[in-house]
């Protein structure tokens, strides 16, 4: 089911009434992405970190802010996904274990997930993550920082990861030059191990990376309707391709949760509502969204009609 099937007029109109904002969030958001610290050990060519320093210093989200976000989610009995990967490497600091335990205690029905480059992961660490509450993990197979996709090298790198983790695997995708993926067996945890060719299936990350910059985006986007993203500094943005530490993306920051802590009111704010409205048109998208190749979804006539009626309400 597409989120376009769930569109309502309230998604494109702001409210400053907390109860209404909380209910809209509860009905809409199924993924919350929280960056608990800034550090990443890599400078991958397909990521803005190639030119932005996330290595020299590690800045942490304030523990009080993290606890506030978790408490707010608990107030609506949130049962969607919480993921811990933004533009950091979430397994580089074992503080993630404490954050997972806190989330699991407060949100017993939420799915705790992260993406990782796998550099810090071994079988013992995997057990610790599981015991702390994680039940979903994507291990992405990366080559050297500036190395482009090579299918044979990705397969070899994947085999090295498997040997380190000591887990059974099932090959699910083997598309030369495009994608290689396995499902790994570990208790009741969902684990994907995969490598992908970002030149084929990547995006420019808000016009920051030289991938598909000649693409013209006209399709609507539903990402800012069902996702919430909070950077390590407490700033909330409407899309995973935006980040608050990039000057060109500053205009897309919805709020600083250190100053106004409600994730519900931020989701329902004038800035968020206006951004969602702008993503529903069939016109060329503007600014950092102009060449976005992420979240493409061809629309049925029925969904186009629903979008039109939402905008006209």
From TrEMBL:
Q: Which InterPro entries match?
A: 4Fe4S-binding_SPASM_dom (IPR023885), Aldolase_TIM (IPR013785), rSAM (IPR007197), rSAM_sf (IPR058240)
- Enumerate the UniProt keywords alphabetically: 4Fe-4S, Iron, Iron-sulfur, Metal-binding, S-adenosyl-L-methionine
Report the Pfam families cross-referenced here: Radical_SAM, SPASM
The cofactor required is: [4Fe-4S] cluster
Q: Which residues form the Radical SAM core domain?
A: 34-142
Gene3D superfamilies under this entry?
A: Aldolase class I
Question: Is Phosphoprotein among the key words of this record?
Answer: no
Under Gene Ontology molecular function, one entry of this record is: catalytic activity
Per UniProt, residues of the 4Fe4S-binding SPASM domain are: 221-293
- Does Iron show up as a keyword for this record? yes
Q: Which PANTHER family match?
A: COFACTOR MODIFYING PROTEIN, FEMO COFACTOR BIOSYNTHESIS PROTEIN NIFB-RELATED
Instruction: Kindly provide the name given to this protein in its UniProt entry.
Output: Radical SAM protein with 4Fe4S-binding SPASM domain
Organism for this UniProt entry: Rhizobium paranaense
